[in-house]
Amino acid sequence: MNKVNQKKRGGSMFENGLQYVRSDFHLHTNKDKEFTYAGEPNSFVNDYVSALKEANISVGVITNHNKFDIDEYKAIRKAAKKQDIFILPGVELTVKEGANGIHTLIVFNPDEWLEGGNNHIQTFLTAAFATVHNPENRNTKSVYDLKNVFEKLDAYGRDYFIIFAHVDQNSGLFSECKGGLLESLAGFAPFKNRVLGLQKSRTRDHLNQFKRCCGYLPALVEGSDPKTITDIGKGDKCTYLKVGEYSYSAIKFALQDYRDRVSENIPDNKHGFIESISFQGGKFDGQTIMLSCELNTLIGIRGSGKSSVLEVVRYVLGLPVQMDKEYKESLVKNVFGSGGKATLSVIDKHGKRYSVSRIFGERINVLDENGNDLNINPISLFDGVQYFSQKDLSGSADHENGLLEKLISGRIGKPSHLNSCVNELVRTVERLLDVSKIPQQMTEVATLQTELEHKLSIFEEKGVAEKLKKQSGYATDTTKLDAVKNRIDAILRDIRNAFSKNAVASNALDGYSSEFNKDILDDVSAVLSLIDAQLTQIGSCIAEIEKQCSCMKDIISHLKERTDSLADEFAEIKREIKDETLDVDSFVRMTAELQKTKEKLKQLSEEASSKSKIEASFTKAIRERNDALLMTYNDYKAETERINQNQTELRIEITFKGDREGFKSQLKNDFKGTGISDAKYQAISDAFTDYAAIIEDWIICDGNKLKSIVTSGEYVKLEDKLRSQYEELLSRQVENKVDIYYHRKLLRQHSIGQRASALILFILTQDDNDIIFIDQPEDDLDNKVIYDEVITAITQKKTHMQFIFATHNANIPVLGDSERVLVVEFQETKIDVAQGNIDLDSTHKQIVDIMEGGKEAFDKRQLIYTSWH
Question: What is the pTM for the complete model shown?
Answer without folding.
Answer: 0.75
